[in-house]
Amino acid sequence: MRIGLALGGGGVRGLAHLRVLEVLDEMGVKPSLIVGTSMGAIVGSMYAAGYSGSQLREGVRELIISKEDRPGDLWRRKSSLLKWFQFFRLKNGRQAVLSPNGFLEFLLENMGVKTFEELKIPFRAIATDFYREEEVVFSSGDILPAIKASMSIPGVFEPVVHEGRVLVDGGVVNNLPYRDLKKECDAVIAVDVIPSRDPEETDPPSLTDSVMGMFDSLMNEVVRFKLRESPPDIYYRPDLHGVRTLDFDKIEQVYQQTDESIDRFREDLKALLESKGGG
To answer: Where are the beta strands (DSSP E) in the chain?
Structure first.
């Protein structure tokens, strides 16, 4: 059975995908095709390169500081921790606030591959042509410009100029690209990491929260429409709340909130395999 896996965008919330990948590994399920947007493209490309879900999670562990860390742990991981400073390097120009170049180069260096053709699982990254307002699908050639374009949130990260086109975050047009898989796979799994809002909240949002929240709302509405029209075989959306797109200090919170519903995903996957007659 050919299983397609779609990993949605959502900044740091996209690290919830790692728990999904761990369940796939646990149950011996290997996707035949992976499509990712933004953080989903980063995680998907690393998984397609041959890393397991647990290996990716351990890799993230090397890049964060937790309250359990001792001074010796931080010293051992100092070179990895410094990569966050490259990731959050401020831009001087008017196009963006941050540049992800150093961090993405670090990821590709550790991935051990530079092109789509070298990946062990077929993979596609979704970006948006800013001026044509249309989806751009990367599936061949160099991985770096594809991932960088897919995660270039307008106004936050600098856009990518590639082959004469100005490209930004794929979430602008297709944050959860599961319909791209339906014609080529027997079953499709879609993992949505758009956050849940607290309807009881009354504090006015900051300027940044207002802009990013509006972006999330628009993407959420598009996904709802697609789900009504043509749902995937498994739609999994963990209840992620209180975590903004760039809250990289809340990675453990993302894991904890995902774990609250990961058993539901495990059961859905088990039922899918049984209904389709195997893995």
So the answer is: 3-7, 33-37, 89-90, 98-99, 123-129, 134-138, 160-162, 165-169, 187-191, 234-236
What the block records as the tokens of 172 is 């602008």
Classify residue 142 by its DSSP letter. Answer: B
d(CA 126, CA 49): 17
Distance CA 152, CA 154 (A): 6
DSSP 50-82: T--HHHHHHHHHTT---TT--HHHHHHTHHHHT
In contact, 119 and 35? CB cutoff 8 Å: no
Structure tokens belonging to residue 151: 């995660």
H/E run at residue 253: helix 251-259
Q: Which residue has the tokens 């809250």?
A: 247
258 contacts: CB under 8 Å, gap ≥ 6:
16, 19, 238, 240
At 204-216, the pLDDT tens digits run: 777 667 777 777 8
**Considering only CA atoms, which of 28, 36, 37, 35 is closest in space to residue 1?**
28
Structure tokens at 104: 């993405």
Token pair for 2: 């050919």
Q: In this predicted model, what pLDDT tens digit does every residue of 51-100 receive, in sequence order?
A: 999 999 988 776 554 445 454 544 444 455 445 445 544 444 555 455 66
The total number of residues written for the chain in this structure: 279
**Torsion angle of C-alpha atoms 68, 73, 77, 81, degrees rounded to 10:** 40
Distance CA 21, CA 236 (A): 12
Burial class for 90, CB neighbours closer than 10 Å (0-12, 13-18, 19+): exposed
The answer to whether 33 touches 185, Cβ cutoff 8 Å, is yes
CA–CA gap between residue 154 and residue 160 (Å, rounded): 11
C-alpha 86, offset from chain centre: 19
